[in-house]
Amino acid sequence: MKIEPFKLERYFARHEFTAPWLLCSSDCESMSVRDLLEMEPGASDALASLWLGYTESLGSPELRQAISELHEIITADDVMVHSGAQEAIFNFMNAAVEPGDHVIVLSPCYQSLSEVAVAAGAEVSSWNLHPISAREDTRNSWHLDIDELKSLLKKNTRLVVVNFPHNPTGFLPSREFFAELSALSDLHGFTIFSDEVYRGLEYNSADRLPCMADINPRAISLGVMSKTYGLAGLRIGWIATKNSAVYQQMAAFKDYTTICNSALSEFLAALALRNAPAIAERNLGIINGNLQLLNRFFQEFRHLFTWYEPKAGPIAFPGLKMGDCRKFCSELIEKAGVLLLPGNLYNENLNCFRIGFGRANMPQALEKFREYLLSGTRS
């Protein structure tokens, strides 16, 4: 397979573990193994006696059951565990997409959501989010047009890929919009791959969308431990679906990737999901506190940036009003040690940058950013 370099990951490979201040992380605050084990009596003893042989290819029964409880109608038998969301995306696209298929992908997007489909031989079209400037009674926001999706549909459209809450904008559509998307799938016969890795981080819980796999029998919902729960080191992701044909295709393809998952990671992931509300509530507390700081920051520097306030998740996608965002981010890391993610890593035409606010040290990183802007060292 020939595939384009993953621009975002190559950027992080250069900077993530050397930059003093990460201000673009897409995950939430993590925790230690000790902290996680303390959430459940007897967990430490159970971990100590864990058998380190091969695990079940589809995932441990305990973990699949815990994942199913995040859903309404999905059962443990509808869940397949992978080594992170990335493997799940890769396996799905290779198992379900055929050369010549037409695929529509919400854009901007995590690159593998489109690039793996291209590598599998599909024709890929972008369904674009659009920035909307504030009026007297509104704020700057992002807009997604369902009619634009309808105009992109072709006779050979086999798949529509969406991501809500959205990376990198924090956009979240209404329940009515989500239901209309599902109805279009029924009408035209395309499959929906729904990236839901930030589900549970809605600032208003009333805005939370159902899992697409719970409302559409052809749909695939994607989840992961790294985003809402901040447990990226476990490398555990999953798909949930009632689409038995796709499920069986993915199960067969997984035999050529990881075969099965880490016993230790599955144990800890199941433990975390049994305590999912507490972990998500902790992370939402961090996010909400940091978001207040960002609102004040972007009000202070409104002459430099356009602030599109997100509705969910630990990331947002502000615009740079003057100058080139790539150059701006490059100078910021060089002169202040603060890492932002330039928008061209998502789309060459986006003069925006991703800012992350799911971690506890975000206030310190933001202050370093502020000091840089006030110092007059910007070119």
TrEMBL record:
Q: Name one GO molecular function term.
A: transaminase activity
Q: Which CDD domains match?
A: AAT_like
Q: What are the entry keywords?
A: Aminotransferase, Transferase
Aminotransferase class I/classII large domain residues = 45-364
PANTHER family the UniProt entry points to: AMINOTRANSFERASE FUNCTION, HYPOTHETICAL (EUROFUNG)
Name of this protein: Aminotransferase
Recorded source organism is Candidatus Wallbacteria bacterium HGW-Wallbacteria-1
